[in-house]
Amino acid sequence: MLKLGVLLSGRGTNLQAIVDAIEAGRLNAKICTVISNVAGVHGLERAREAGILHKVIDHRAYPDRQAFEEALLKVLRREQVEYVVLAGFMRILTPFFLEAFSMRIINIHPSLLPAFPGIDAQAAAFRYGVRISGCTVHFVDQSCDGGPIIAQVAVPVLSDDSEETLAARILAAEHQLLPQVLQWIAEGRVRIENAFQSEKQRPRVLISPS
């Protein structure tokens, strides 16, 4: 069973997708803890309703980023978390944290990376006029949304789409993709190749067949 820690800052819809997949038997995992850097968000209520240990660690209460991340790591280690899932966590993690969970931090991003990294990716894709958008699950490294890609789902941009309708369909795709990737990891099917070699040779993720 895969032991997960989820970091979030908002509504927690991807947390709910993970919870639902576990309850449905589609994901062999346990969410050991949910941590938010923002108090009062709906993601914490989702954790409470699911009976998951949850905690607020407000980054503003710490003198610097490392002190904040030390507080995060203390909880994650205490709960014996194996993989960290960023589910709408609106903080950039430093190398200090990344090294503690090297290639064991998973993020979901609402675009087909490497296109449209960073915030407001759905709106950026819509304004650019792309015909296909989507979402990406990737390992987190020190780059901005540039870690090794695990899986992607394409979402067509319809002729009558608005930014809001496109974003909603991308989010629905996220809710399917993220639990699926976590199940592949739980099954030991995900492997990183060239993870620690030179920058000239980008790491890539291999997924073995079931």
Automatic annotation (TrEMBL):
<keyword id="KW-0658">Purine biosynthesis</keyword>
<feature type="binding site">
    <location>
        <position position="65"/>
    </location>
    <ligand>
        <name>(6R)-10-formyltetrahydrofolate</name>
    </ligand>
</feature>
<feature type="binding site">
    <location>
        <begin position="90"/>
        <end position="93"/>
    </location>
    <ligand>
        <name>(6R)-10-formyltetrahydrofolate</name>
    </ligand>
</feature>
<dbReference type="GO" id="GO:0005829">
    <property type="term" value="C:cytosol"/>
</dbReference>
<feature type="active site" description="Proton donor">
    <location>
        <position position="109"/>
    </location>
</feature>
<feature type="binding site">
    <location>
        <begin position="12"/>
        <end position="14"/>
    </location>
    <ligand>
        <name>N(1)-(5-phospho-beta-D-ribosyl)glycinamide</name>
    </ligand>
</feature>
<feature type="binding site">
    <location>
        <position position="107"/>
    </location>
    <ligand>
        <name>(6R)-10-formyltetrahydrofolate</name>
    </ligand>
</feature>
<feature type="site" description="Raises pKa of active site His">
    <location>
        <position position="145"/>
    </location>
</feature>
<dbReference type="GO" id="GO:0006189">
    <property type="term" value="P:'de novo' IMP biosynthetic process"/>
</dbReference>
<feature type="domain" description="Formyl transferase N-terminal">
    <location>
        <begin position="3"/>
        <end position="182"/>
    </location>
</feature>
<dbReference type="Pfam" id="PF00551">
    <property type="entry name" value="Formyl_trans_N"/>
</dbReference>
<comment type="pathway">
    <text>Purine metabolism; IMP biosynthesis via de novo pathway; N(2)-formyl-N(1)-(5-phospho-D-ribosyl)glycinamide from N(1)-(5-phospho-D-ribosyl)glycinamide (10-formyl THF route): step 1/1.</text>
</comment>
<dbReference type="InterPro" id="IPR004607">
    <property type="entry name" value="GART"/>
</dbReference>
<comment type="similarity">
    <text>Belongs to the GART family.</text>
</comment>
<keyword id="KW-0808">Transferase</keyword>
<dbReference type="InterPro" id="IPR002376">
    <property type="entry name" value="Formyl_transf_N"/>
</dbReference>
<dbReference type="InterPro" id="IPR036477">
    <property type="entry name" value="Formyl_transf_N_sf"/>
</dbReference>
<dbReference type="GO" id="GO:0004644">
    <property type="term" value="F:phosphoribosylglycinamide formyltransferase activity"/>
</dbReference>
<comment type="function">
    <text>Catalyzes the transfer of a formyl group from 10-formyltetrahydrofolate to 5-phospho-ribosyl-glycinamide (GAR), producing 5-phospho-ribosyl-N-formylglycinamide (FGAR) and tetrahydrofolate.</text>
</comment>
<protein>
    <recommendedName>
        <fullName>Phosphoribosylglycinamide formyltransferase</fullName>
        <ecNumber>2.1.2.2</ecNumber>
    </recommendedName>
</protein>
